[in-house]
Amino acid sequence: MPKKKVTEFEIINHGKHHSQYFQGCGVSFTEWQDCTTGASSDAKLAYDDAVELLSSIYDVSILPKRPRGINAKLRTSTRDNEEVYVYVSIRFKFKEIK
After folding, report:
1. Distance, first Cα to last Cα, the chain
2. pLDDT given for residue 73 in this prediction
3. Given the DSSP bridges, would you call strands 4-18 and 58-59 parallel, antiparallel or unpaired?
4. Domain limits of the chain?
5. How far apart are CA 69 and CA 87, in angstroms?
6. What average pLDDT does range 24-31 have in this prediction?
7. Are the C-beta atoms of residues 51 and 60 closer than 8 Å to each other?
8. Cα torsion at 50, 54, 59, 63 (round to 10°)?
């Protein structure tokens, strides 16, 4: 059972980027405590990837199942290089669960 709970969050759809040039996402100089980023062939799968990474440590019950603007319409195509992915980050605040 996770020992921390996500209390506030921000979802960022970075769009398509080549894996060598994606700058990442962080929390320096922001109000957020932590951040995770998912990558996949479309935005929905990238979001699911980010949530899955979080769920091993945090209670993510506050996160939406289908957030606005995150769907499979934004996807890589066969014309894209095989190292092009869609990236979605979740910045969040959390609290310890007793």
Report:
1. 11
2. 84
3. parallel
4. 4-96
5. 13
6. 96
7. yes
8. -20
pLDDT (average), residues 6-25: 94
Give dist(CA 81, CA 7) in Å, integer.
37
75 three-state secondary structure: strand
Read off the amino acid at residue 45.
L
In the chain, where do the E strands start and end?
4-18, 34-40, 58-59, 84-96
What pTM did the predictor assign? 0.90
- How does strand 84-96 pair with strand 4-18? antiparallel
Of the ranges 1-5, 33-37, 70-74, 90-94, which one carries the lowest mean pLDDT score? Answer: 1-5
Tell the residue number behind the tokens 């095989």, with chain if given.
82
